Amino acid sequence: MSVNLTSASELLSRWFHIQTGYVESSLLIPPAQNRLALQQVFQTLNARSCPTSYNFHLHTRRSDGQLEPDEVMQQAIDIGLKGLAITDHHTTQGYKESQQWLDNWKQNHPELANTAPQLWTGAEINAQLLGVDVHILGYAFDPDAACLQPYLQGDAAFLKTDAYYAENVIAAIQGAGGLAVLAHPARYRRPFTELIAEAARLGIDGIEVYYAYRHTNPWSLNTEIVNPVKQLTDSYGLLNTCGTDTHGRDILLRI
Fold this sequence. Notes:
Blueprint: H1 5-20, H2 35-42, E1 54-58, H3 69-79, E2 83-86, H4 93-108, E3 118-120, E4 122-129, E5 132-139, H5 166-175, E6 179-182, H6 192-201, E7 206-210, H7 223-235, E8 239-242
């Protein structure tokens, strides 16, 4: 009987990496926590990706949004989104309800299951960066990871602790297997040039480049801000992300 040595070697290698913690495989983690798959999506994004193909900044009533999680998901399906993340402030409850709704929808519509959008875990977390309050988006992390729990209690009690510092927020998101992204970098009390540079130094994964800084209908980018943000982001080799930052009743708009 012949033995497939290559397969045996691969299995041994996979076993070793599982035991030592150095593994990230789509066979071993839920799709919503597949960091590598999301990273590949981020690498394809451009100015036309949001809001009708992808949307990685959405809020529900589990924080300060006006939509129920199921309403967000129904709109995502109606629009034909390929992928999205629920990024409620300091909680993943909206994501969990959305994931349950999506799973049920797929079971009830098996003929359409392969057209459903991919939902990733997400959250928006306050952090102190260069002395100002900023928001850091976390994606594709394990929502039950112990290192993230101080940030996912539905409030901002951690603001009075060292957990508030951006380097600790970034480390917690990445320690939970996720990607850390600086949200809307041109909305803060320090120049985005300084904030992106410091965030890059701290090891952040990406910047929310494609963001509508004016609340227009339809949603549209402010190229005079977005273009220099993208150039700087690219110069640091960081990922580009996009999102509407929806708080209202329409996920194609911010409010």
